[in-house]
Write a structure and sequence with these properties.
By secondary structure, the protein is an all-alpha fold. The chain contains 12 helices and no strands. Helix 8 packs parallel to helix 10 and helix 9 packs antiparallel against helix 10. The protein is globular and about 55 Å long. The two termini are 18 Å apart. 16% of the residues are buried.
Length: 275
């Protein structure tokens, strides 16, 4: 047998003690659990700030400006129109790069799946855990396709939530909020798949774990759509809304435990550990 490397032993010893991990290791562990939207927003803001700092540093001509002139360049009115914001961004030469943002009507088409695989149940992929690489690898492209389908469906679900437009401090607004929290938790399944996409894992392990994540995603999105289909039934019934919230809180906690377990399994598989 190939001896386990020292770094593997260290991981085994500390796997159940994350409070002892160095920051770099802890960051690797928790990175899939950061909301995709929050992480994307941070990246965009960081890129904009870096570009502006570089432009200022490259400019050797610094003109003195008065406080009144400075105030005139800053948008402080929260009710400013989108046109005014666009003008300000244009003056600052902040433009969205075409490759960073595609138009919504130019969605990347989802590839057609193998007719013999598109109707396979999730249980089939989950049972591939111990399958030889040559066998399990055949089904990974189908899971990639289903990943894109789930990602597209998540966006459509988000749009349905946004389109509710509930009144401020209403029962509907509270329900929209908890459904949004559940959707954010659901999307972490895609983060975990992305996090481990470039790592060398047995094909059977990857198929098993990705199938469990995608299955949980679709099941929970089904739950959200069932609620949205009959969203007006509860109305302003606070007791019914509270019961619904408690049930959704339970689902969020369940997904949190499930995703942590699957993320651990990805790491153990990568380190040739049993799980």
């Amino acid at each position: 047998e190939v001896p386990i490397q020292r770094r593997h032993v260290a991981v085994v010893q500390n796997l159940l003690c994350p409070h002892k991990w160095p920051l770099s290791a802890l960051s690797l562990y928790i990175s899939p659990f950061i909301s995709r939207r929050v992480r994307l927003l941070r990246e965009i803001m960081a890129d904009v700030m870096v570009e502006r700092v570089e432009e200022v540093m490259d400019d050797s001509d610094f003109d003195e400006v008065t406080a009144e002139e400075c105030d005139g360049d800053i948008v402080t009115d929260s009710s400013v129109s989108e046109e005014s914001l666009a003008d300000e961004m244009k003056e600052l030469q902040i433009e969205e790069k075409p490759e960073e943002k595609k138009k919504e009507d130019e969605k990347e088409p989802i590839p057609e799946g193998d007719p013999e695989m598109v109707d396979l149940e999730w249980a089939f992929f989950i049972k591939l855990k111990e399958a030889p690489n040559a066998v399990a690898a055949v089904y990974l492209p189908e899971l990639k396709r289903r990943y894109k389908v789930a990602e597209r469906r998540s966006k459509a679900t988000e749009n349905r939530l946004v389109d509710l437009h509930p009144a401020d401090r209403s029962n509907a607004e509270d329900r929209q909020e908890i459904l949004g929290e559940l959707l954010d938790k659901i999307d972490q399944a895609l983060d975990i798949i992305d996090e481990h996409d470039g790592r060398s894992l047995p094909a059977g392990h990857r198929a098993h774990l990705e199938a469990r994540l995608l299955q949980s995603m679709n099941a929970q999105m089904d739950c959200i759509h069932r609620i949205l289909d009959k969203f007006d039934v509860i109305g302003e019934d606070r007791d019914a809304a509270n019961n619904e919230r408690e049930g959704l809180r339970y689902e969020i906690r369940f997904l949190d435990m499930l995703y942590t377990e699957i993320h651990d399994s990805f790491l153990k598989s990568f380190l040739d550990m049993e799980w």
